[in-house]
């Protein structure tokens, strides 16, 4: 293991976080906080701690070889998220009165992983600077800390290719000629562009600038943190809800697909099946949810009912987690549909969580192929996706990932149930579902109108780990626990 390059790049992650903390301090000052307010002092202290750690890590890695292979890349990604979560918890711990570190870790992990669950019942009373940090942490985490510095660090060379592929849920083939720095930079520009567009749309819809900026950051990151106690229901504004539906849908789709369309590469309209499946699932699920609401309310569907159904379907499938109604009171059939959408998630190469649409489609096609080959064993059935033939190793890796994800989910439910003996099954199940798939709200005791504050500290720390596991799609965290990964670099 070449630990020197890991130390060096971790120091760069900390420096980037210093810039984010400074932005939060500036936002607080702009919103009326004084230089000597406790919240400002807390951000000064956090910046100081981050700079100190960055200096130590830079010294430890200054003389190492600048070689980054897959093993180092995976470890770096996992460690950068763990370190960012720990440092990002400091503002909560220092500012919120009577805050224990488990709550701070949970909130920080929920931010960076774009989960949107909260451990603070009265987060809306936070100082403006801390509210801004909640939203900014999701915006930074949405595209990924690693992708940000890959785009800006050309010296990584081939190492950037490995980092980008593992961090962004994409592959180097998503960009022409393997120019990963250029590709990551295009992603950043697109990400910033739709964030600005979303901010302007929210402002035109009736939000003030502070709320518009905060909600735009958490919408495009599919994070779901809100400045309001009851999320989007607080605004009671149909125009804002439709704006959110549009931008959540855009954020849950493959970013590279949108970038290529903007560049005029219309031929990809015939290639990317994942986006069509994604949109089809949204439309079909919205129609089905509307029928469930018709049954629940006993009246014909109208605009409000269709909007409510569509908003919740898009919010849950993209794993944003906003709410305009207490869906915990809906029919069991509605809840089952939402649980299925939590599992599916958004597209690969998006800010959405879940196992991703492409894996679900490939797994279903593989299952159908196995059924056909059961009575026609000599039939060769090549599987195509996006205009390309998938090799067997790619199909097997998808199936392995789904099996591993389900295994982690089952084991996690057992752990949470054992640690929270008074918790109902649906609460334990949905708390794992909501955190592992980065959704945010669950059902019952962790529903859209509730929070995770009442859980034991150990449970909150475990769920925080699940958020990071889900955000990094397991391997970048699990590799940290493999002894062979830490053998000396040679």
Please, could you describe this protein's structure?
This protein has a two-stranded antiparallel ribbon. Helix 1 packs parallel to helix 3 and helix 3 (70-88) packs across helix 8. It contains 20 helices and two strands. Helix content is 64%, strand content 1%. The model has no long low-confidence stretch (mean pLDDT 88). The termini are close together. It is globular, with a radius of gyration of 22 Å. A hairpin with a 2-residue loop joins strand 1 (383-385) and strand 2 (388-390). With 490 residues, the chain is mostly helical.
Please render the helix and strand layout as text.
Elements lengths: L2 H28 L7 H24 L8 H19 L1 H6 L5 H12 L15 H16 L1 H8 L5 H10 L12 H26 L3 H12 L17 H15 L2 H8 L10 H25 L5 H15 L14 H13 L12 H19 L7 E3 L2 E3 L1 H28 L5 H12 L20 H15 L3 H4 L12
Antiparallel strand pairs: 1-2
Helix pairs in contact: 1-2, 1-3, 1-6, 3-5, 3-8, 5-6, 5-19, 6-7, 6-10, 7-8, 7-9, 9-10, 9-11, 11-14, 13-14, 14-15, 16-17, 17-18, 18-19
Quick synopsis:
The chain is an all-alpha fold and about 500 residues long. It has 20 helices and 2 strands. It has a two-stranded antiparallel sheet.
Structural class: mainly alpha
Order of H and E elements: HHHHHHHHHHHHHHHHEEHHHH
Rg computed from alpha carbons, rounded to a whole number of angstroms: 22 Å
Give the number of helices.
Answer: 20
Uncertain runs are none
Shape: globular
Report strand %. Answer: under 5%
Distance between the termini: 7 Å
Biggest sheet, strands in spatial order? 1-2
DSSP strand count: 2
Work out the helicity level: 55-70%
Q: Residue-averaged pLDDT, rounded?
A: 88
* Major β-sheet profile: 2 strands, antiparallel
């Amino acid at each position: 293991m070449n630990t020197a390059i890991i130390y060096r790049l971790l120091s760069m992650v900390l420096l980037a976080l210093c810039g984010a903390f400074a932005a939060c301090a500036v936002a607080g000052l702009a919103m009326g906080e004084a230089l000597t307010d406790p919240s400002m002092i807390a951000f000064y202290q956090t910046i100081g701690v981050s700079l100190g750690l960055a200096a130590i890590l830079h010294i430890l890695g200054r003389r190492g070889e600048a070689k980054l292979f897959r093993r180092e890349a995976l470890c770096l990604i996992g460690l950068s998220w763990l370190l960012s979560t720990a440092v990002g918890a400091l503002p909560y711990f220092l500012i919120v009165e009577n805050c224990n570190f488990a709550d701070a870790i949970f909130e920080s992990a929920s931010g960076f992983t774009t989960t949107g669950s909260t451990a603070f019942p009265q987060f809306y009373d936070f100082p403006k600077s801390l509210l801004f940090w909640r939203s900014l942490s999701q915006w930074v985490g949405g595209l990924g800390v690693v992708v940000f510095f890959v785009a800006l660090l050309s010296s990584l060379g081939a190492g950037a290719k490995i980092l980008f592929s593992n961090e962004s849920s994409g592959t180097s083939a998503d960009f022409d000629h393997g120019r990963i720095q250029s590709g990551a930079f295009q992603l950043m520009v697109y990400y910033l562009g739709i964030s600005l567009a979303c901010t302007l749309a929210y402002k035109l819809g009736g939000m003030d600038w502070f709320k518009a900026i905060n909600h735009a950051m958490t919408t495009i990151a599919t994070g779901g943190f809100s400045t309001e106690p009851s999320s989007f229901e607080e605004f009671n504004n149909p125009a804002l809800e439709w704006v959110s539906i549009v931008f959540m849908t855009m954020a849950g789709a493959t970013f590279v697909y949108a970038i290529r369309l903007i560049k005029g590469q219309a031929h990809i309209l015939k290639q990317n099946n994942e986006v069509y499946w994604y949109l089809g699932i949204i439309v079909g699920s919205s129609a089905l949810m509307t029928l469930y609401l018709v049954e629940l309310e006993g009246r014909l569907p109208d605009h409000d009912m269709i909007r409510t159904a569509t908003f919740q379907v898009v919010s849950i499938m993209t794993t944003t987690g906003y709410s305009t109604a207490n869906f915990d009171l809906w029919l069991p059939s509605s809840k089952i549909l939402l649980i299925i959408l939590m599992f599916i998630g958004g597209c690969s190469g998006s800010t959405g969580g879940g196992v991703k649409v492409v894996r679900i489609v490939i797994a279903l096609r593989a299952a159908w192929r196995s059924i056909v080959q059961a009575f026609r064993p000599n039939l060769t059935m090549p599987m195509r996706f996006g205009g390309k033939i998938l090799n067997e190793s790619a199909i097997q890796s998808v199936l392995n990932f789904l099996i591993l994800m389900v295994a982690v989910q089952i084991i996690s439910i057992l752990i949470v149930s054992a640690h929270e003996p008074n918790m109902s099954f649906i609460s334990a199940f949905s708390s794992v579902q909501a955190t592992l798939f980065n959704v945010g709200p669950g059902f019952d005791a962790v529903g859209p109108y509730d929070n995770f504050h009442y859980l034991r500290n150990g449970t909150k720390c475990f769920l925080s780990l699940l958020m990071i596991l889900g955000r990094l799609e397991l391997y970048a965290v699990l590799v940290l626990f493999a002894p062979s990964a830490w053998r000396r670099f040679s």
